[in-house]
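Suppose you are handed only these lines of text.
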Amino acid sequence: KAKESGRNAYRFFNEHMNTDGRRRLQLQNGLRLAIEREELSVHYQPQIDLASGAITGAEALLRWTSREFGEIGPNIFIPLAEQSGLIHAIGEWVLLAACHQAELWRQHYPPGLTVAVNLSAQQFRRGDPVALIKRALAASGLPGELLELEITESMLISEADEVLGMLQRLKALGVRLAIDDFGTGYSSLSYLQRFPIDKLKIDQSFVRHIARNNDDAAIVDTIVQLGRILKLTTIAEGVEELQHASFLRAAGCNEAQGYLFGKPMPAAQFAELLARGDATTAADDSPSQSS
Ligand code: C2E
Ligand code: MG
Ligand code: MG
Ligand code: MG
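From them, the structure of the protein bound to magnesium ion can be written out as follows.
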């Protein structure tokens, strides 16, 4: 499947889209109308503290149910939105929805639940992310401390000085910064000291085989140690099996996210999960019923 890893998704996108430019245009036109037609929605995937089993928050993941094309995955439509400039409107829409949602959690559930929102490189290069985040926090009432922004390694390489200034101003708003898909980007790690990063999200392509593949296990171990030394929180994505969670807990990884604890789900279903506390049980080595 295309979403299996960032690397595969990229390859899939190229093959798929380059071979059919017409469909790409059709999808792009559909996407242009998606917001006003209310075809976009946000799903939430729980993030778990591995030591306690508690839900710490959720990642917001965009969904598009097109009346013409059916369900289109973000690995397809996010690149289209980036190419057409629609990412600015769509990115603001998802950010606002996620902040409103997290503000509701703050009022109804134990304090401290965070929401993580993915930011596209385009939103940095041709946008004003600081103004964007300020607007979303002001409109929702969410404290900056409860918002986490997921960015990718590649964003820290290009136009590094400009990006550094933006990230520092974002940090001044209280928000936390996470590196998504960590380990799949550039090999220079010096940026980890240079940029005000809070969290490393270990890419799911390393997590998938940690129980069977010594190389992947060593990579995950090393990233966790790196995080500990640099005082960064570590979270593993794509945690599907109990063995994954056990390995990660033993390695000292702080948090986990994956089908073992819950798939991305509508907000109402996530609220049920919070109320039941299922994920707590799952982290204690009994599988969650929700996935
Ligand atoms: P990501 O940010 O790395 O998100 C993680 C992806 O892994 C999600 O795919 C999630 O559904 C999937 N996943 C989570 N747990 C597991 C698991 O245990 N096993 C497997 N096999 N997969 C798992 P999804 O929702 O299809 O999103 C794909 C990518 O699209 C995201 O990767 C992100 O880069 C992008 N994306 C999604 N929503 C947004 C958004 O609102 N804005 C931007 N800019 N990008 C977004
Ligand atoms: Mg990814
Ligand atoms: Mg992400
Ligand atoms: Mg990721």
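What can we learn from it? Confidence is low (pLDDT under 50) at residues 1-7, 280-291. The pocket of magnesium ion (ligand 2) is lined by residues 6, 181 (CB under 6 Å).
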